Amino acid sequence: MIAVPVLIAGVTLLILLSLPSHLPEFVFITIIVISVLIMVATLRWLINNVIIVPCQATISHEGIFFTLEKKSLLYQTKEFFSGWENVTSISEIFCSKTGRNFHRITFSNPSITANFSAIKYNELEADKFFNDLSYYQDTYMITHPKTQKKVFQNWAQG
């Protein structure tokens, strides 16, 4: 996520430095605007096609299992299973940008964190999944981490 803007900014800078200085100002501004648009488009594509990957997730008394529905350069395996003993925390997070909740599950072995949210028009299945997830969280006494706001409030208080 950081490499893309740095790479595009570097190429843009090389282009700008190689142009003659007597060119009109609007040429330089146009090049800069085009590079920013390319950055935004590339980052949006990365987020929607590489980072966010649809998956099928199932849970049972044995643990949680999910299968990625498409390949991704960021994720080495397409299938993942973890018993409840390897789940260190489950938290529900509200995304103010989308207005939707998602669940963050942190695993200890391997040390990864996965975020799960409902796919549009599949909210009923997602509700069942998240209700079952809450049941197993309570059954196996998996922690509910405090939100950052509470951590900062507690830190500020003493």
UniProtKB/TrEMBL annotation:
It comes from the Bacteria. The chain crosses the membrane at residues 28-47. Keywords: Membrane, Transmembrane, Transmembrane helix. This is PH domain-containing protein.
